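Two records follow; treat each independently.
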Amino acid sequence: MRILQLSDPHLVAADAALVRERPAMALLERALLEGQRENPDLVLISGDLCQDESWGGYVRLRRLLEAHVHGPVGLLPGNHDHPLLLKAVLGRRVCTAPAELIVQGTRLVLLNSHRSGCSAGWLGPHQLQWLQQRLDDPLRRDLPLVVALHHPPVAIGHPVMDTMNLSDHHQLAAILQPHAALRAVVFGHIHQHWHGTWPQRPDVPLLGCPSTLRSFQCVQPCPLGRAEDPGGRLLEIHNDGSLSHQVLRWSPC
């Protein structure tokens, strides 16, 4: 099972508008075209979908997905999103967090770390309770599990990069770490490649994804030596349940 993760496209309502001096819409379209070469079974876009939180921006995202993606899609709201508009425009076409998908024997759990009026992440007690209940389902407990959210669940070593609040971080770790089926936790927000682990589960990678728009100053070197280029990540769950992953990069339009 192959997951194409893209992140932080920062679309706006105007088709040709520049965001951070780059054409956000054209760059996301390029990312979808490049990513389809990897034959993904599912496309995940991990937040900050619509910079101006506009109806028009989400409509343009829907049109891009309809044109270029024919399989399942998972979308996460980021701090630069309006979750209700996102669900209203795309909820019938894609799966939006919080949600669970099962694709080719792999579980993908989508978490919503958006908090209105705040750039930092938050999950809240009700969502954490929902997560605990989903993971404890005995019929699905042994399936390989990937968890996705927008904000990093740990500090990545960047002085101004928001993470989740400390209480949610500890509770999320406590819920996930006992699950032997957990293969990876993936996130966006940081506009760069990042690879870490929890001390209690060094076998489970925590993976930050590059942005399709523009990179932030990197904390870790890009494995491809292309830290400034737009990119994404490909994750593959193999037949034996093991995980492999790689960073993808392409030139700007």
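The next record belongs to a different protein.
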Amino acid sequence: MPGTLYVVATPLGNLEDVTLRAHRVLKEVAVIACEDTRRTRILLSHFGIHAPVTSYFEHNKLRKGARLIETLEHGQSVALVTDAGTPGISDPGFLLVKQAREAGVPVVPVPGPSAVVTALSAAGVPADRFVFDGFLPVKPGRRVHRLEALRGLEMTVVCYESPHRILAALDAIAQVFGEREIVVARELTKQFEEIVRGPAATLKARFEAGPVRGEFTLIIPA
């Protein structure tokens, strides 16, 4: 019998958000596959979990994925985690899940934190219908083109952005959406958590005033 691939959500920042089930599964599996072993070891050390870890990220996903499938086919269970939140959302974890299903390996989700849902829950915008669009394109022209396509949707739009590109992203949103109020969330569940609302140009000026840190979740209501 093959082992089980557990898709385990981990805290966005506050370690108290780990679920009892995630804690148990991470203790019981043969190996934990993670984006950054250093970040995952901080979580594991905090909870006294000593399971072996192995890296699984964008640049080794094909080679490492094959090895993890072999582990699973030999009857050992594997936990897949991402740096923060739920695996498979804007990271390469979906490919390992796909490979496991194709190999007949059981896949079990262990739900928990997600930046998309966490930000939406505190944004005060309609979320009965929304689209998640991952990270906006890096190139300015493609970024504006993507936003123009999203502008036509009659639902809330959620996307991620890095601190290095947040100012450019807000500038593009202001260009496409004008004075429409948006919500920007950063450092969710962490000490310096911030959720602010206003026109993109206003928020850009706010973040220009000081160092920009933390991963961002952007919410654009319809």
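Discussion point: Residues 61-73 form the longest helix (13 residues). How would you locate this feature using only the token line?
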